[in-house]
Structures are given as C-alpha cells and as structure tokens.
Design goal:
Low-confidence stretches: 1-5
Radius of gyration: 22 Å
Largest sheet: 2 strands, antiparallel
Helix content: over 70%
Strand content: under 5%
Mean pLDDT: 89
Number of domains: 2
CATH superfamily of the largest domain: MFS general substrate transporter like domains
Bound molecules: glutamine
Number of strands: 2
Distance between the termini: 39 Å
Length: about 500
C-alpha cells in the first residue's frame, strides 16, 4: 500500500475540492463495518426462530433488546473515547471486539449465540460513534462542505447496509450460493462473512490512519506514558467484563427495560455535569445539540417501524410486484430505503452545496423540521395504501415503496445532518460523548418502535387480513400526524434553537 504522508490538522482541513481524501478512507471502513452490522441484523431474528426454537414474540423482544443495546453502548464507547482511549484506539478496539464476536458466531452460532452477540454489541459501541466524530474533524468549524461530507459518508453506511443486509441472510437461508456452501454450514458462513468484512474494515483503517494526522489521538497527551497505558488497559479489561452482563441483559429483556429507564436520564445528567467545564457560549450550543437529540428519538421511533410493524404489514398486506417487476415485499421493506439513500445522498449533498453558494441553504433546525415533514408525508402514503387494497386485504407494493422513497429524503435531512451538527455543536473534548448520545437516541427509537409496533399489532389480533390492513394503515396515519406536529414545532422553535447555536449554521 502506498505510503500516506502525515499531515497536520490545518493541512487536512484546507483540502481542495468537495471532499477530503481521508473521507474516502473513513467511508470504506464504515461501509464494511455496516456490512457486518446489518448483515448480522438481518440474520438474528430468523436464526432465533429457526435454530434456537424461540417463539416470534420472544425473538422480537430479544432482537429489540439487542438493537437498543448496540446503540446504547455507543454512548459508553463515546465516553471512553473522549476520556481515555481517543477516537482511533476506540475504533480499533471496537473493531477487534466485533471480529471476535462474529468469529465466535461463525464457529458455533447455536451454542455461542449470545456470547458472540455480546462481543459484537460492545464492539459496535466503541466503533460506531467514533468514526463519525473523526469525519467531523476533517472540517474546519465554518466549512460549508461539512454537511455534504456527512451525506457522502452516509452513502457508505447504506452501501454496506444494503450489500451486507442482503448477502449474509441470502447465503444463510440458502437462496444464494447453495451449491458452493454445504447446507449444514450456511449459517456459519453467513456469520463468517461478517467477520471477514470486519477484518477488511479494520485493515482499511489501520493502513490509512496516518493520513488523519493528529485526529483521534489520545485525549491524555500530558499523562505519563505508563499511567496512560494503565488507564487504557483498564478500559480494555473493563469492556471485556461488561460482555457477560450484556449477555444477561439481552437474554432477559425486562432488565433491558430497566436499563433504558436509567441510561437516558443518566446521560443527560452527565452532560449537565460536563457543562460545568465549558463556557456559556459552548453550553448554549450543547443545549441545542440536546434538542436535536431529543427530536431524533421521535424520528427513529417512527422510522424503525421498518424492522417491526412494517415488516408484518409487508408480509400480510402487500402485493409481490412493483410496476410489474416481481419483488419480495419484505425484501423491499428492508432494502428500498438503503437503495434510495445511495441513489440520492450525493444529490442532496450537492443541493446543500449549491444552496450554500447562493447563501440560501436552510440551517440545521429547518433541515430537521423538513426531515419530519418528509416523514409525515411518507407515513401518510403508507396509510394511503389502504385505498388500493383488494378484498383479501392485499394492497400495492409500488405505493408502499413510494412511501419509503419520500421518507428517505426525510432521513437525509436529519440523520447525516444531525451527525454533522453534533460535531459542530460540541467542544472537541466532549465530542464522542455527544455523538454517543446522538446514537443513544436511536437506541430509544428502536425501543419505542417496538412498543408502538406492538400496540398496532395488538389492536389487530384475531382480525381478517382486510381488517388488519385497516388497523395498520390507520396506525400509520396517526404516526404521520405526530410527525407533522413534530416538524411544525421544530420550525416554530427554530429561531430559539438558532440563537442557542449562535455562529453554527
Ligand atoms: N442507518 C444509519 C446507520 O446505520 C443510521 C442508524 C441510526 O442512527 N439509527 O448508521
């Protein structure tokens, strides 16, 4: 591999053109990591039901707990990155744990299922928020190219999600490469894929990290080397000791309920405690970040219906073709969004740049508000599928797909922009924690999505397929109305939030 010269921060941030070259390296590391993550995500519930003999309700609850933990752990991963390891070592350690987790799963998924999962959860916590924080540091605070950079990075996220999400489960279920992979090894190979791509992710990072100059190095430069080393080793050992605890929490979902009640308020209290160290100017920005984080919980709670109630809606009530092309409704529900992100992230990024040049780019609060308005329209379209239903309660997959198309623009106004805003609004010292809190909001989103989905499902018990369709569709109309209200509230409070954000756009 070609030797990349070490650069200083100014040199990195003064890059020419649309994107810094380091963004490409982080793009690919994150792409492979998301391949691993979404690859596994796609296999979990199916494996739990088909090989671990769980009933669907238990599998769904444990899956929800896994997802909530993954994102909740990003807060803890961010905290240790800020205080002890630095972004780079955290990312590396997280990658190693993810590899260990997926190797364990590939060796014997049936007997070591929860052990492998435990490692993967903790590993993702150390990896995921910190790579996003590094993207933020490639840009000067006032660089208008930052949001476009995050949109591009987000494309890497979804490219990995799309390919991994499809390939791992397709091989494991035997719908791909049947003749190459013996039947009794299919699941091992599916999980093994995740391990291999995670190794590629880590190698991509280690081979290119020199180009990051000072970005992500230790937060304790003034400590004696041996003392720093001790703290680092304690962090590594501590994170290994947490794995068995996570395993117990995931296997007993009621413990996860308690944890979710505590971690959010605790993280907010911690943020307030941290605020003591910062100036009023910095603290106002942190408050603005907190407002974004709280709104994003609602967004993800609706959006993440995709893994829950929308997948049941897809299975029961959607046709098997889009404009005459035969397609699996669940496949579409799982992947259409990633595909649209890949198709349109760069376009949306360029639109922001184009608007910035003409000084008409909406600021982050308005973009967030727009995100909710798109979400509202998308859910209204899901509701509207009801008017295309036949007597058997089967409606148009095409119209449903259009709903995802619209929601994708909402996601692009909120998710990459939100990540970008977290890096702008937080002082360097607490950046990984803020990024961790951003993803913690996704943990709550996942958690509430399960509750919302369960409510909709409960209301449609013992109903005919057509009645079910009506209950689900009406549920989506309700969610659409809530999203609309959230969008309007955000736009109404935008002057206040803008004030808190001060010079940040
Ligand atoms: N799909 C995005 C990712 O995996 C965002 C996930 C989230 O924040 N809920 O990075």
């Amino acid at each position: 591999m070609e030797q990349i010269p070490v650069s200083n921060l100014e040199e990195i941030q003064n890059f020419k053109g649309k994107y810094p070259k380091q963004l490409w390296y982080l793009f690919f590391s994150e792409m492979w990591e998301r391949f691993c993550f979404y690859g596994m995500r796609g296999m979990l519930v199916v494996f739990m039901v088909s090989h671990l003999g769980m009933n669907e309700k238990v599998a769904n609850l444990q899956y929800g707990a896994t997802q909530a933990w993954v994102y909740a752990f990003t807060f803890i991963g961010g905290l240790f990155a800020d205080k002890i390891l630095g972004l780079r070592k955290s990312l590396f350690w997280g990658g190693i744990l993810m590899i260990v987790g997926s190797v364990i799963l590939s060796i014997d998924p049936k007997n070591f299922f929860f052990i492998g999962l435990g490692f993967t959860i903790v590993g993702t916590g150390f990896f995921k928020p910190n790579i996003s924080s590094m993207v933020g540091q490639l840009y000067r605070n006032d660089d208008p190219r930052r949001d476009a950079g995050f949109s591009f990075f987000y494309m890497g996220v979804n490219l990995g999600a799309l390919i991994g999400g499809y390939i791992c489960i397709a091989v494991a279920e035997g719908s791909m490469w049947q003749s190459l992979v013996p039947e009794h090894l299919r699941w091992n190979v599916g999980f093994g894929f995740a391990a291999v791509v995670m190794i590629i992710s880590l190698l991509t990072f280690t081979q290119t990290q020199k180009s990051l100059g000072p970005i992500g190095l230790t937060p304790l430069p003034d400590f004696e080397k041996s003392k720093r080393r001790l703290w680092e080793i304690l962090t590594y050992v501590g994170s290994l000791l947490i794995v068995p605890i996570i395993i117990i929490m995931v296997a007993n979902t009621e413990y996860t309920d308690y944890f979710m009640m505590v971690i959010g308020p605790a993280s907010v209290l911690y943020l307030f405690y941290e605020m003591k160290n910062f100036s009023t100017v910095e603290n106002k920005k942190l408050l603005a970040a907190l407002i974004f984080i709280i709104f994003s919980i609602f967004f993800w709670a609706f959006f993440e219906q995709s893994g829950g109630s929308l997948s049941l809606y897809a299975a029961n009530n959607l046709s098997h073709d889009v404009l005459g092309v035969p397609l699996s409704p669940n496949g579409v529900n799982n992947s259409a969004n990633s595909l649209f992100v890949i198709g349109f992230a760069a376009v949306v990024g360029l639109v922001w740049l184009w608007m910035a040049k003409r000084k008409i780019e909406p600021n982050t609060v308005v973009k967030f508000g727009l995100g909710f308005l798109f979400l509202a329209v998308g859910f209204y379209i899901f509701y509207y599928t009801k008017f295309f239903a036949n007597e058997q309660g089967i409606t148009s997959l095409g119209v449903f797909t259009f709903g995802w198309f619209v929601i994708t623009f909402g996601e692009l106004c909120l998710s990459p922009i939100g990540m970008s805003a977290m890096t702008k609004l937080s002082p360097q010292k607490t950046q990984a924690v803020i990024m961790g809190m951003w993803f913690l909001a996704s943990a709550y989103g996942q958690y509430f999505a399960g509750l919302l989905g369960a409510n909709i499902a409960e209301a449609s018990e013992n109903a005919t397929n057509l009645e079910k369709l009506v209950v689900y569709a009406d549920g989506y109309k309700q969610l659409g109305i809530y999203a609309l209200i959230a969008g309007i509230v955000l736009i109404l409070i935008s002057p206040l939030v803008k004030k808190l954000m001060q010079d940040v756009k």
